[in-house]
Each structure stands twice: as C-alpha cells, then as structure tokens.
Design goal:
about 80 residues; alpha+beta; 3-stranded mixed β-sheet; about 45% helix
Length: about 80
Amino acid sequence: MKIEFADLGDWGDAELRSEYDPQGPVIRINFRVADRLSPEERSAFVKRAIAHEMYHHLEHLGEIPVIADRTAREAAASE
C-alpha cells in the first residue's frame, strides 16, 4: 500500500480528507487539510485518515462486508 500526500481539490463547504484508490493501491491524504494543522494535530489526522482508508481497502479485498448505505459505511470506516 502506497501512502502519499496530494492536492485533492476544493470541495467547497465539504472537506475531503483522504481517498483510497484500489488501482494502486494508494491512500492519498489531502495536504490542503494537513498543512493547516499543528504537528500534533497533523500526526493524529494522518493516523485517522490511514485507518479510515484501510477500512475501504479491506472492503475492496472482500475481508469485510461492504455496507450498502454510504453514510453508514463512512461512519463504520471512521470508528
């Protein structure tokens, strides 16, 4: 699994913190968010983002079931 910082674009009022790309596989962490955090906040942010996207990686691999409801799936990934 590759992990990289990337510009994930402007999402207006929404904030895209990270994304999972199964084609890499790669986790991209939004440097627009990370760059405005203190070092301590950034460390916690990166750990949460990686854990969240690893959940989606496990879904992709079929190791955990994919929850049909997107809101519930994203909540589960953030636990």
